[in-house]
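Listing S7. Sequence submitted for prediction.
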Amino acid sequence: MRPFRVYRALPVPLAVLLVAGCRPSATPVPLPAPAMTAPIIIAHRGASGHRPEHTIEAYALAIEMGADYIEPDLVATKDGVLVARHENEIGGTTDVAAKFPDRRTQKVIDGDTVRGWFTEDFTLAELRTLRAKERLPMRSHAYDGQFVIPTFDDILLLVANESVARQRPIGLYPETKHPSYFRSIGLPLEPPLLEALTKAGYRTKEAPVFIQSFEVGNLRALRSQTPLRLVQLVSPVGAPPDFVAAGDARTYRDLVTPDGLREIARYADGIGANTRMIVPVASDGALGTPTSLVAEAHAAGLVVHAWTLRSESAFLPKGYAGDPLAEVRQLAQLGVDGLFCDFPDVGVRGTRAR
């Protein structure tokens, strides 16, 4: 592997393009998807353990570190542009409170009352005036205030250019955040997502793309609209928000029974499962006996991508004795097909040499 490049700021020409909203006249056709001979490494929100999440700099560093896919969470602006933020509430990840103090408000998102600043209340031009900051207190804040909020088009441009420059496929793993909510306010996420992917050349099941969601209804709808691969996200607790809204009593646990997995296989290509659904962890941090979820999902014809691997002691179970590589290697040995990593360099080291 080449030495990691330090991304302190965007190259000036690209920075100008992003702020101005400009694009080159042509986008290179995506390379074929990476061969899945080892667990793919999915850079969770970019190299979010090293740079503020969901920034071009975080994605670029993840690519430099050897990630196979980068993961942008997508929400919508007031003028219908897809931007990368983990939540539509951006008070914790940007300097919006200082720049727009009077825009704070309260909303109900998927049944939860949330107070803050929301992307759907800002135009893209307004969001471009904001700068990202680190969300977690234990991580470096050295880059706070330096990086802009990228659009999905910005990310597509980065991936196209980096794939050509490095002559290796770099995949995209977008998540639709709160799709029912955004549809309810007249800003559906799926049409602009598919339009952007199609325009950029992602048109077949072999394309290096997975579209993921914690909801079920939008994935079912997408299945009839695109051949791109779809992933049903599941969690140890709770239920799909669209199930709750519809009065459907099923939970995520119901979705990962053998019957539930076979049903998922009718509309999706894989599941994104919390690591604790694969390797249980006791209250004292001890590791439990691995579950049968990977084998059962594979039997249903689904790939399994595990989320989220983080190296800090606040997240890494004590059973791994402070070694994040041990978690990577165990999940790989258990047959998972992909790993969501905040530290993609650790994921790469734990699975194969680059």
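Caption to Listing S7: primary sequence and predicted structure tokens for the chain studied. The first strand starts at residue 40 and ends at 44. The chain has a mean pLDDT of 91.
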